[in-house]
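Example (one chain per record):
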Amino acid sequence: MEDIDHTRTRTKRPRINGICERFHKTLLNEFYRVAFRQTIDRDVAALQADLDRFVDEYNQRRSHQGRWCYGKTPMQTFLDALSTALEKPIPDGQERVSTPPVAEGARGASGAACQAES
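Predicted structure:
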C-alpha cells in the first residue's frame, strides 16, 4: 500500500513498542474497565461511539506528560512538529503525501485554529 513497508513487533515489548504498549494500558485501565462497570452497551456501535469519545478526549483535550508532549495534547505536539516534518527533504523518487486532515477545533501552540486541507 503506497510503497510503505508494514512491520510487526512482538507484543509486550515496551523497549521496542513502548508508546503503543502504554496507550493499550491506558485504554484498558481508563476506558474499558470503567466503561464495562458503568454502562451496558446494547451493541458494538454504542461501544465504538464511547471509544471514539475517549480517544478524542485523549488526543485533543487531555494534556500529556510523555516524552515529547511536555504538558501539551498529542494533537498540539503533532501540529507543532508538522512544519518541521514538512521541511525535511524527501529522498529521490519519492513523493510527499498530503498532510492529514486535522480535527475541527484542533489548535497548535500558537493558539490558531488549524483547518483541514480541501
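Caption: Residues 74-90+100-118 form one domain.
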